[in-house]
Design a protein that fits this description.
The protein folds into 2 domains: about 250 residues, Aldolase class I (TIM Barrel, Alpha-Beta Barrel); about 60 residues, Four Helix Bundle (Hemerythrin (Met), subunit A) (Up-down Bundle), CATH 1.20.120. The protein contains 16 helices and 8 strands. Strands 1-2-3-4-5-6-7-8 form an 8-stranded parallel beta barrel, surrounded by 6 helices. Helix 13 runs antiparallel to helix 16.
Amino acid sequence: MTTEPDFFTRAIPGPAPYGRAVFAVAPMIDWTDRHCRFFHRQLSAKALLYTEMVVADAIIHGPREKLLSFNEAEHPVALQIGGSDPAKLVEAVRIASDYGYDEINLNVGCPSDRVQSGTFGACLMQTPAVVEACVTAMKKVATVPVTVKCRIGVDEQEPAEVLPDFLARMIGAGADAIWIHARKAWLKGLSPKENREIPPLDYELVYRMKRENPGVFLGINGGISDLDQAVEHLSVMDGVMLGRASYHNATLLTDVDARIYGEAAVSVDWDRVRDVMIEYAERVIASGGRLNHVTRHMVGLFQGYAGARRYRQILSSEATKSGVSPQLIAEAFAAVDIAGGPKTQGASGTSAAAE
C-alpha cells in the first residue's frame, strides 16, 4: 500500500532505522487525527507524523476503518499503539500492517489516569520486563520499524538509574528507535498538562544516553518550542519531536524541510495550501463530517501575522455553524496579511507573536 518512506533518506547522518535525522510531530490524543495530519502534511513534506494513540483492544474489536485508515498523502506516518499484553499487541500489529503505516510505536509515555487504568502508557516504566516482552513480540510480526516512546522515569524512580536499564531492554528486544520525553511523569497528583510542565527537563541525561548508545536511534521530546532548539538538539540526538509547539504554531512546520532535511528553501504557496484544504474539507463534509473537524486543526497557523486573530475567529467559532461552506477557509486566509509576513519570529524563532 505504501512506497518506501521518505524518512529513509535524510540530510543529517544518523543510525538505523531512518538512516538520517528525523523531525517528528508527536502523537497527541484528540489532536493528531487524520485531518490534523493531512493539514500538517501540506506544510512539510518530510516531517514524520504520528497518529493519536490507538488502544490495542480497540484495533482488535473496534471499527478498524475509522481507527486506522488514513490519506495516502500523510506518509510518512506512524501508528502509536497503547497496550501491555504481548498477544494483543501482536494481533493489533498484524491488523495494522494491512493499512500501510511506516512505523509502529508503543506508548510508554502518557501519564493520564485513563491510560493508566488500561495498564499502558507511562506506568509501564515501572515494569520494563513487560515492555521488553511487548516489543519482542511486536517485532516478530511487524513489517515496518517498531519504536518506543517513553519518559525518563516515573514517580520516585531515579532516572539516571532506571533509564539506562530500560533502554538496554528496549534495544535488546529489537526496538528500531526510542523517543525519550526528557521528563519524569508523576502518575498521581499531576494532570497530563502538569506532567508536561512541572517535572524538570533533563536533556543532559538523554544526551548521555545517546553518547552511550551511538549506534541506536534515540530521539528527544519535551519542552522544545521552535526549530532553533530542534536544530540544537540534533547536534547530539538522532531525532527531535515537537508536540504542542507544532500544533499551536503550525507555521513552523513550513521551515522543517529546509532546516532539518536540507531541502532547498522555497516560499510557501499559501494559495495551494488554502485550495487543498478547501477541497479536503469538501470531501470530509460529503462523507458525513463537519467543517470544524478540519478547521480546528488549522487555527494555529499564522501566529504573528497581521489578521491572525480574525483568522482564528473565523475557523473556530464560525466554522461550527450548521451548513457552513468550506469556502469559509478562503475567507479566513483572506483576513491575514500573508504577504506582509510575521511581525515576529512566528515560524521558527522564540518570540511571542504580536497581532
